[in-house]
Amino acid sequence: MAGLLLVPGIEEVRAHRTWFLVIGILLIICGVIALGDTFAMTLVSMLLLGWLLVISGVIEVVHGFARRGWHGFFINLLAGILYVVAGLLIVAEPHIAAMTLTLLIAMILIVAGAFRLFVAFGTPIHHRGWLIFNGAISLILGISIAASWPLSGLWVIGLFIGIDFVVDGWTEVMLALAAR
C-alpha cells in the first residue's frame, strides 16, 4: 500500500473509486459475454472495423474534394477510396476478414516468439527466463492458431477481445480496491 501512495493521480482514483469499481465490473461482464460467444464477438468486431473504415473513407473523400486546391487532394482521395473499399469488403465478408486477420496474428506471434527466443538464447541478458517464457508462449500461441486455421479465424479475435476486457476489468477493480 505504501507504494500506491507514490502513484501520480492516486487521489483522483480514491475520490472516484466507486466509478473505477463499477467500470471494472462492467468490463468483466462484457468480457465474460464475449468469451461466451467468441464467434459472435469476432464477427461484431469485424463489422465494427469495416463500418469505421467506410465512414472514415467517406470523410477522407469529402475532405479531399473540399480542399481540391491542396496538393494532397489525390492522397486524400486515394486513401478515402481505399478505406471505403476495404471497409465494404470487410462488411460483406466479415468471416473472411477475421480469418485473414487471424492468420496475420498467428504469423506475428510466431515471428515475435522466435525472435524473443533467439535473443534470449543468443545474448547474455538479465531476466533471461522471463524472455524465454514470453517467447515460448508467443511461439506456442502462434503455432496453435496457425495449425487450426482457418477455423481459428472464427473465434480467436473474439477470444482475445474477451480476455482483454476481463483483464482490464480486473485491473480497474483491483485499482479501486487498492485505493481505499
What's a concise summary of this model?
The protein is mainly alpha-helical and 180 residues long. It is built from 7 helices and no strands.
Question: How would you portray this structure in words?
Answer:
This protein has one domain. Helix 3 (38-66) packs antiparallel against helix 4. The model has no long low-confidence stretch (mean pLDDT 88). Helices cover 82% and strands 0% of the residues. It has 180 residues and is mainly alpha-helical.
Number of helices: 7
Average residue-wise pLDDT: 88
Derived from helix and strand composition plus strand pairing, the structural class reads: mainly alpha
Amino- and carboxy-terminal Cα gap: 10 Å
Radius of gyration: 22 Å
What's the β-strand tally?
Answer: 0
Largest sheet: none
- DSSP strand content: under 5%
Molecular shape: extended
Order of helices and strands: HHHHHHH
Number of domains: 1
The proportion of residues forming helix, as a percent range, comes to: over 70%
Unreliable segments of 5+ consecutive residues: none
How are the SSEs placed, and which strands pair?
Blueprint: H1 10-15, H2 17-36, H3 38-66, H4 73-92, H5 94-122, H6 128-147, H7 156-178
Helix pairs in contact: 2-7, 3-4, 3-5, 3-7, 4-5, 5-6
List key phrases describing it.
single chain, 180 residues, mainly alpha
